[in-house]
Design brief:
By secondary structure, the chain is of the alpha+beta class. The chain contains twelve helices and 19 strands. The chain starts with 6 loop residues before the first strand and ends with a strand. The relative contact order is 0.14.
Length: about 475
């Protein structure tokens, strides 16, 4: 069977995957949702760096779990993206010259399209605003009016340009293509609701791939999860290269769009995705859940999400967090953005990404206007009162670490740590880790602080 013994190397980075899984466990505990999906990608290459779903299952005993849990939701789950999709719509509006960032617009508070009322997330008018404010505050009225001006043909064609309505072609089974209207079947209200991220269904992978195009100067890349396949004798059987699909919007338009999305995180609805000292761009979303049978929406059930990338000056990581049916707080800006912030800050450290020269100061007192975007407010939804949240503590910059030669590593102190935490410490230090027993660390084969060769294995004993 010489021919058949091939080895697959994935694009997944085990450290980033670990960070993501840990944060998803935390978000499951804090928000008790039905499910969470997270995908991290390198926008420069289209490589998937992490992909995780909760609830999860043990593939060695898959028969013990509900078949629904076997699905990889990143590619086989479709949902209405809500306001995260407004990033794509904003790109189309800027490219077509329908709006400019400083263009002034008087917000009527609500608009009617073929008998459907579309209102802002708080049900109020924001008065005289610029298009930059419309994006920053995720105003449904502005997107509905400008989207209607863009028209069905162009709205659908830009959605297709960004990769919606077709499979991405990633090397994973069961990929869904999502749902896109045919332009000639769209009534006025369909155009307006699609402009705010409803009346369209996407997969998480399609959405983050579109954001990667925005991060990558407007060029859409094909996503990959297989890096290379090797033959049994170690020679390379096939290797994956960066594959450009097409340009979505002009480079100049793209730079403008990235600037608007950076403002969303710096001073708008995505403020809780910030990481002190770094420039992050992105968009939050809160979409009402469609009924199982496809007829209308389920009252009080939402999908909260955040999609973004960083650092803005040279994006190295794009991130999507989708929280399905959380308990309690439900806005993407409240619950998905903080998960993204915690993942970003750990990934920046792991990838040794330097802080930006000019960190955008964010006053945590500004976080009182709790961040919503009422894609769901089409249906006359009023915002639930949620207790005012305290801004998440921003990670302090780390103390500079001693510079060891690259071939050496310093053994961490595992004492008292869980297996999971110990594995993370070992991974960060660049050493291998072998666990014995369970519970918390009581002993380690090489003393804490000792300098060893990179890749040295440390045995750690755990006891309840």
């Amino acid at each position: 069977q010489g021919d058949r013994c091939k080895t697959i190397q994935l694009t997944i980075d085990s450290a980033i995957q670990f960070i993501v899984e840990q944060e998803l466990d935390r978000a499951m505990a804090e928000n008790s949702p039905l499910a969470i999906t997270c995908v991290a990608m390198d926008p420069r290459t289209g490589e998937v760096l992490a992909m995780a779903n909760r609830p999860s299952y043990n593939p060695n005993r898959f028969w013990d779990y509900d078949p629904e849990v076997w699905k990889n939701r990143a590619v086989s789950y479709i949902y209405e993206p809500g306001s995260t999709f407004k990033a794509v719509v904003a790109g189309a509006l800027l490219q077509e010259g329908i709006v400019a960032p400083n263009q002034v617009f008087v917000d009527p508070g609500y608009v009617m399209f073929s008998g459907k009322k579309i209102q802002n997330w708080n049900g109020a008018s924001f008065g005289t605003v610029t298009f930059a404010d419309v994006v920053k505050q995720s105003l449904n009225t502005g997107f509905a009016i400008f989207g209607y001006e863009l028209g069905a043909e162009k709205l659908i064609s830009y959605a297709r340009l960004f990769g919606f309505g077709e499979p991405t072609g990633i090397e994973l089974p069961g990929e869904e293509i999502g749902i896109l209207y045919s332009p000639d079947e769209m009534v006025d209200s369909d155009i307006a609701t699609m402009a705010i991220g409803q009346s369209i269904a996407v997969t998480p992978l399609q959405l983050i791939t579109a954001f990667c195009a925005i991060a990558n100067d407007g060029i859409l890349l094909k996503p990959h999860i297989v890096k290379r396949i090797k033959n049994a004798n170690g020679t390379v059987y096939s290797e994956t290269h960066v594959e450009e699909v097409r340009r979505t919007i002009d480079s100049a338009t793209d730079k403008t769009l990235v600037g608007l999305l950076e403002q969303v995180v710096a001073t708008g609805g995505g403020r809780k995705a910030t990481v002190r000292g770094y420039r992050v761009a992105g968009k939050t979303g809160t979409a009402q859940k469609v009924n199982e049978d496809g007829s209308g929406y389920t009252e009080g059930r939402y999908i909260a999400s955040f999609c973004g990338f960083a650092p803005v000056e040279s994006p190295q990581i794009a991130l999507l967090v989708v929280i399905d049916d959380p308990y309690g707080a439900f806005y993407g800006g409240q619950i998905a953005a903080p998960v993204a912030s915690r993942i970003f800050s750990q990934v920046f450290r792991y990838l040794r990404i330097e802080p930006s020269d000019a960190p955008l100061g964010i006053d945590s007192d500004e976080l009182d206007a709790e961040i919503g975007e009422g894609d769901a407010s089409i249906h006359g939804m009023q915002r639930k009162e949620t207790p005012k949240e305290v801004a998440p503590p921003t990670p302090e910059p780390e103390t500079p670490q001693e510079q060891l030669a690259p071939e050496f590593a310093r053994v961490p102190n595992f004492y008292g740590k869980s297996i999971r935490e110990s594995a993370r410490l070992a991974n960060e230090a660049g050493i291998n880790f072998a666990a014995e027993g369970s519970g918390f660390a009581v002993n380690q084969s090489i003393g804490a602080g000792e300098i060893v060769d990179k890749g040295t294995t440390v045995k750690v004993q755990f006891s309840p």
